[in-house]
Amino acid sequence: MEIIQDIKNDILNRREVKIVIPAEKTVSYTEAAKLIADHFKVHEDHLAVLGVKGKFGRKTFLIEANIYRSKEAKEKTERKPKKKKGAVLETGAQ
Question: Per-residue pLDDT tens for 25-61?
Fold first, then answer.
């Protein structure tokens, strides 16, 4: 694991990190969160994985993540996922 960038952002109460991880197959968001949590010794609830990027033919992946000081700081700053349009139709409204 190689840390490319580690910026401390006091305004948003977070650390913004970019890490390169060697792996044989594509790293999922949950696997990336576990690796970062273990390396920085933080709880997974304080992490927001922004992206996992790989290039064709390489066995390294760039992971961008934000590490928050608390779960409340994460919930206050990070966007919440949008609801799907089809979810209304699946609940029984026909």
Answer: 888 999 999 999 999 999 999 999 999 999 888 899 9
The model's pTM: 0.77
CA distance linking residue 30 with residue 21, whole number of Å: 14
Torsion, Cα of 48, 52, 53, 58 (10° steps): 140
What residues form DSSP beta bridges with 61?
Answer: 21, 54
Question: How many of the other CB atoms lie within 10 Å of CB of 56?
Answer: 4
Q: What is the rounded end-to-end Cα distance, in angstroms, of the chain? A: 51
Q: Which residues contact 80 (CB under 8 A, 6 or more apart)?
A: none
